[in-house]
Specification:
Order of helices and strands: EEEEEEEEEEE
Helix content: under 10%
CATH class of the largest domain: Mainly Beta
Distance between the termini: 37 Å
Strand order of the largest sheet: 2-1-6-7
Largest sheet: 4 strands, antiparallel
Strand content: 35-45%
Radius of gyration: 16 Å
Length: 131
């Protein structure tokens, strides 16, 4: 079984997620600075600026795909929500705020991750949250 990366890194300049390649490592230090180690190719350690770090939630969707911060969870009926960390755990948020269930509690990701799909993320699919 492949190990799930604990972070994904969105590069604002290239508008793409950084991906590790053979002989390359993506490093994140305690100050949330992101570096790429290309020593195998002779480039050494270089910092990548203007990035967004998306943490792995520890959960997977109904298709067993890892769920990360800033992913968009949804279903076929048009229900789309952003994954955020708040209230001490992973929760869902729309453009107004946290999703509140009828009982008055915040809807947390672990309650629905096994029945919903990742349909995108806020970087590549911002239009999914505009409805």
């Amino acid at each position: 079984m492949n190990k799930i990366p604990q972070f994904k890194v969105w590069n604002k300049a290239t508008k793409k997620f950084l991906e590790e390649r053979e002989g390359q490592e993506i490093l994140i230090n305690s100050k949330n600075q992101v570096f790429v180690n290309d020593e195998i190719f002779g480039y050494g350690l270089r910092e990548i600026k203007d990035v967004v770090i998306c943490r792995f939630t520890g959960l997977v969707d109904v298709t067993n795909k890892p769920i990360y911060e800033n992913d968009i969870i949804g279903n076929l009926s048009g229900w789309h929500q952003k994954v955020v960390y708040g209230i001490g755990e992973w929760a869902l948020q729309n453009k107004i705020g946290f999703i509140i269930k009828p009982c008055g509690k915040v809807m947390v990701l672990k309650e629905i991750s096994n029945i919903e799909h990742i349909i995108g993320n806020i970087f590549e699919n911002p239009d999914l949250l505009e409805e």
